[in-house]
Amino acid sequence: MKIEIPEKKKLVYQMRIPIRWGDMDAMSHVNNTTYFRYLETCRIDWMYSIGCVPDPQGEGPVIVNAFCNFYKQLEYPGEVLIKMYVSDPGRTTFESWGTMEIISEPDVIYAAGGATTIWVDFPNRKAKTMPDWMREIVI
User: Fold this and answer.
1) CA–CA dist 117, 106 (Å, integer)
2) Which of the residues 4, 10, 56, 88 has an alpha carbon 20 to 30 A from that of 27?
3) For the whole model, what pTM was predicted?
4) ∠ CA(46), CA(70), CA(21), 5° rounding?
5) How far is CA 30 from the centre of its chain?
6) Which domains does the chain have, with CATH numbers?
7) Kind of pairing between the strands at 93-102 and 79-87
8) Is the torsion defined by CA of 92, 65, 20, 84 positive or negative?
9) HSE (CB half, 13 Å, CA atoms) of 9?
C-alpha cells in the first residue's frame, strides 16, 4: 500500500545526514529500516529545535504509526537531505511527513514517509489536547 504525501503541508525543518557504510545491507544499498531512522532523527531534531522535549513525568508527542515509500535506492557514499513537513492538526494529533533526496541530486525524491503524532499525558498514558504553542507550529 502506498500512502501519498499531501499537497497541502508546511515545511518546518531540514537536515542533512551522511550515509554511513554500516547503513547498507547485503544488497549494497541502504537497508529499509535505516530510512525510518533517518526520518526519526529529523523529526526528533525538529522537535528539540522548537523546545518540544518529551518529559516522561509530563506530556509530549508519541508516534502512533509510520510509513515509508521507497522510490530509488540510497547508497554509500552520499548525504541525504531530509525535509520535514507537518499537516492536518487535530485536537490531539498532527501528521508529519519527510522526503529524502541526495544532496548531489536536488529535488529527486528517493523516499518519502510520514507518521501520525499524538499528544500524550505520559503518566496517565492517555491522549491529551495538544498545547496551543504546539498547535501554532503545526497549523
Assistant:
1) 28
2) 4
3) 0.92
4) 75
5) 17
6) 10-138 (3.10.129.10)
7) antiparallel
8) negative
9) 18
pLDDT value at position 1?
A: 66
Query: What pLDDT, on a 0 to 100 scale, did the predictor assign at position 5?
Result: 83
Closest CA to 98 of 117, 88, 85: 85
Nearest Cα residue to 95 out of 60, 131, 59, 61: 61
Side-chain-side CA neighbours of 135 within 13 Å: the count stands at 10
Q: List residues bridging with 61 in a β-sheet.
A: 119
CB 60 within 8 A of CB 118: no
What are the φ and ψ backbone dihedral angles of 134, each rounded to 5 degrees?
A: -75, -40
For residue 43, give the H/E element and its range: helix 32-49
Determine the residue type at 38: Y
Contact 20, 29 (CB under 8 A): no
